[in-house]
Each structure stands twice: as structure tokens, then as C-alpha cells.
Design a protein that fits this description.
Helices cover 32% and strands 32% of the residues. It has 196 residues and is an alpha+beta fold. It has a single domain, classed as Gcn5-related N-acetyltransferase (GNAT) (Aminopeptidase). A hairpin with a 3-residue loop joins β1 and β2. α3 runs antiparallel to α5. It is globular and about 40 Å long.
Length: 196
Amino acid sequence: MLTDIDGCIPGDLVVLEPLTLEHVAALSLAVADGELWHLWYTNIPRPSDMKNYICDALHQEDRGEGLAFVVRERSSGIIVGTTRICNWEQEHRRLEIGYTWYAKSAQRKGLNVETSLLLLSYAFETLDVMAVEYRTHWNNEAAREAISRLGAQQDGVLRNHRILNDGTVRDTVVYSIIESEWPEVKAHLKQRLMNS
């Protein structure tokens, strides 16, 4: 899986473009579609916090710990969300895919399946990792189901893992896909896209 000349990762439904500060306005519109920041079990920014959210992602990139993308819907040309490679431990050939969210109107359209296929292909086939991890709040049942449908296996639960902005304590469910599982997961995701 190669990126194009601008560092974009193109698919049939979406194009993953490197995140920049120029995306503040577009992502602020996307997050307002459904007021996603009200989901208490996620860490999705308000429009007023979008610049800081992007700056944090770019600082992670500067440290060599991540790569952040906006998700542009190919059919409309509209930026509908964002996703990241994060917690990238290059010496251990391991990373996490996270910080993924979509405007409400873009959810359940197959975009996440293709985004996942593109990022997993990039991780296993270009970055040569041996494991990709996903993490989510125990109470985020929709995310847990979506991660399982990708083909990731649950590794365990980190109890009392994080204190959230509202003071509640998060139990984090950890999933992973390892390199020996990747060919089967890839075939499964391609089949899901064909059937959608």
C-alpha cells in the first residue's frame, strides 16, 4: 500500500489525507454534524477545541509516534472525519489505530471499513508492523462491535485505566490484529466492501 505524491492514501470510497491546521474548519463542521463531543465515553473535540486537537496530533507526528489523517468522502469531496496511527512503537513494530470519528451523516456507509482496510494495509505492508492495536471505552458498545467486526481479537481490559475530563474513570478494552492474522482480515474486509 503506497501513498500518492501528497502523502494521501486513496481508496474507492475515501481518501485519507495528512492532517494539517488547514483542516480546522472542515473538521469543525464534521464534528458538529451530530454534536459528537456529547458522547461521554469518547474523546471527541468540540469545534472550539479543534485547533488544539490537531496540534496535539501534529506534535505526536513530530515525535515519530503517529500519523494523522482526515477522511475525505470521494463521492462528495467533503471531509467527514479523522483517524490516526498513534502510540507507534517503531522499535517494537507495533502501533495503534485510534482517534477515529465520523460526522453522523457519514456513519454506517462503509467508510469506516475502507478506512480501516487502507490504514491496516499501510501499517502491515508499508510500515511493516507486527501488531496493530485498537482501544476503546468499555461502555462504547458500538465501537467494540465495530472493532470486533474488523477481525480484531480482544486482548483484555485495562481496569481503571484513565480519568476522563468529566472525572469518570474509564476501563479500556484492548484489541489487536497480528501480522499472521492480517491476510485473513484483509480478505474479510475486502469482502465486506464488495457486499456493501
